[in-house]
Structure formats: C-alpha cells, structure tokens
C-alpha cells in the first residue's frame, strides 16, 4: 500500500497514536514543552505530561537543562538488523529468570550495535522499579557494553571511538578509563558499572559468545541504590552468572538459528 492510500485504523488506540505524534513532533521540531504538547494533541497538560514521561522512560525523549523534551537515544537508533537476536533472547529467557531468583536482582540481556548496547530482554524481581527492555545505552558506560567490548582487539576499539569523523562523544580521557575497565574484564571475565550510565545503578556483566568465540551479547545483573552486588556475595553472584551464560552458550551451539562464525562481529561492529 502506498502512502497515498493510507487509511486510519478502524479501531485506533488513541494513547498510542498521541505518543507517536509526539515522537514525530520532536523529531521534526527538535524540542517540545508540556504546554506545546497539550495544545498540539488537544489534551490536558497532565495527560501530555504523562505521555512525555512515558517516552522518556522508553528512551525516545530526554529533558534538557530547560526541562524541554528533546530526542533521546532511541529516536536515532536504526534497526539492528541482527537476524539471530530473537533466538538468543528465547534461549536466554529461562536462564535469566532462574539467575534472578538465585541472586535476588533483575537480569538483562543486551547486544552491541556499533558503540551502543540494546537491551533485548529483562527478567525483573519483586520490588524492581525499572524495565530496561528496549533501552539504547552507550556501550562504554555499561557493564554489558564493557563485557562485549573486551572481546574486541585494541585497534578495533581505537577505530570505533577515536578515529577521525567518529561521533561517539567519547573523549581521550574517557577512552583511557574505558580501556582500564576492559583490562579488568579481560583479567577477571566480568565487568562492572557503578553509576556510570545512571547515578543510582550498579551492574555486573558477563559476555555471551558464539561458537567461534565472537561476542553475541552479554548478561547483566542490576541493582538500584547501595549495591549488594559488590559485597561479600560477589564471588557467588559471578559464579551463578558464569554458569547461566555457559548454559546459554551450550544451547546456542545446537540452535540452527545461531549465527555462523564471525557473523556476530560482522553484524554489530
């Protein structure tokens, strides 16, 4: 059907349509305030505010220093184009749930798309206040990102972050800190992020590899506030995470939808 033949749906979902309209407005105009959104949609300011905050929650919008809403990371994220991600998510799901029960924290599964990570799935525990599914985050500031980046060669990392014309907003000093963190992952097999992506979040990550050893994704455990992850139970938590990732890798080995050797890097580098 061509764009000239588009017809309104017979049973529209008004809230969804309004949210999509706000995305279009910010995409085309660059920013919007609550009063402007309410006027455009013909709704009360309180309703517009709830819609905008939902889009912030899902990373489509962020608020700038003037409290206006501007495009968030999900707004510019194109399709990942990774055919095997659905199979990875399906394989990982039961192991994520079991891991969350064992350690008492939420678990997440992420893949890397260039210098960003995308959260494919989350298994939350009672009391969890955030669902990370669908989030688009800078790889160098997340436990999942550092876990996957640690499997790349140093020259590849330099090209990704420091090559002329690359727009990752990473300074040389921040890249040096990233390399220190990657050195830790290469020595220990696990990564950590404490307040780097969000001030109150602590996360531990372990990479998930393909048959060839290429990075497919990473599993993380996250917690808010003062972290129990880095306390006396850390060794136990890391051991459970390694066991879960090993089971996922073993099941992927026999999955006909699993990527061929090298496909993971080719799709996400």
Outline the structure in words.
GO terms for molecular function: DNA binding; DNA-binding transcription factor activity. It comes from Actinomadura geliboluensis. Keywords: DNA-binding, Transcription, Transcription regulation. Strands 5-4-3-8-7-6 form a six-stranded antiparallel beta sheet, sandwiched between helices. The protein has a two-stranded antiparallel sheet with strand order 1-2. With 269 residues, the protein is of the alpha+beta class. The radius of gyration is 20 Å and the shape is globular. It folds into two domains: 62 residues, Arc Repressor Mutant, subunit A (Orthogonal Bundle); 172 residues, Beta-Lactamase (2-Layer Sandwich), CATH 3.30.450.40. The C terminus is likely disordered. Helix 2 packs across helix 3.
Features:
Arc Repressor Mutant, subunit A, two-stranded antiparallel ribbon, 269 residues, alpha+beta, Beta-Lactamase, six-stranded antiparallel beta sheet, disordered C terminus, single chain
